[in-house]
Specification:
Elements (H helix, E strand, L loop, with lengths): L17 E5 L3 E4 L7 E8 L3 E4 L8 E5 L2 E10 L6 E3 L4 E7 L1
Antiparallel strand pairs: 1-8, 2-7, 3-6, 3-8, 4-5, 4-7
């Protein structure tokens, strides 16, 4: 059976995994209208709070201790929201749906 030549992404199927990093506090991933970010791994140089706005304000997404946090299940971020770190250097693997 030949493979499909349909190159469009199927609704609800995750896109390719992406990586973002931030030195110090601030925006790790910028907000994008209509997109939902799903965090799969977090690497932090110091304990940090991930939230939907700077300095840990608005919705708190997760608390990440220093080191690697390999998640068993992705953490969805509210649609059209970015991800901000409160401290330390942060690297994050994620995908967008």
């Amino acid at each position: 059976m030949p493979r499909s030549t349909n190159s469009q992404q199927t609704q609800g199927v995750p896109s390719v995994s992406l990586t973002a990093n931030k030195t110090g506090a601030g925006a790790v991933v910028a907000a994008s209208s209509g997109d939902t970010i799903v965090i799969t791994d977090i690497l932090a140089s110091a304990a940090t709070t991930l939230s939907t706005s700077a300095a840990g304000a608005d919705t708190i997404i997760a608390y990440a201790p220093a080191g690697a946090s390999n998640l068993n299940q992705g953490i969805p971020v509210p649609t059209s929201s970015g991800v901000y770190s409160s401290a330390g250097n942060v690297t994050m693997n994620y995908y967008i749906i």
